[in-house]
Design goal:
Radius of gyration: 21 Å
Strand content: 15-25%
Length: 102
């Protein structure tokens, strides 16, 4: 299947990606990931291996789109839950041990 990654066309097939990733140890996942075989790889690592380009040259979205079209399972990394920030008054009250109002 013809895929464009970092403005360059690549003829990729599922068996070719499997062969390229065989024997490569997955890096820790900090963002989106691709399931290849029984392993979860970061999409940037997969993109760097199959295109032989620097990771700064392509986006995770380009690789995710290509891997999805080839039939691989792609997962997005859940964003951290937003934390409630306290106003300066609430922060001072909490430090003093006084109850806060809402």
């Amino acid at each position: 299947m013809r895929c464009v990654i970092a403005r360059f066309p690549f003829d990729l097939c599922k068996s070719g990606v499997l062969a390229s990733m065989h024997g490569i140890e997955p890096e820790p996942i900090t963002g989106d990931s691709v399931v290849i075989g029984r392993r979860h790889y970061p999409v940037k690592q997969v993109g760097a291996v199959i295109t032989r380009q620097d990771r700064r040259d392509f986006t995770a979205g380009e690789v995710t789109r290509a891997m999805t079209r080839l039939g691989f399972t792609c997962r997005t990394h859940p964003e951290a839950a937003p934390t409630r920030t306290l106003t300066p008054l609430q922060n001072a009250s909490a430090l003093l041990g006084a109850p806060t109002l809402g």
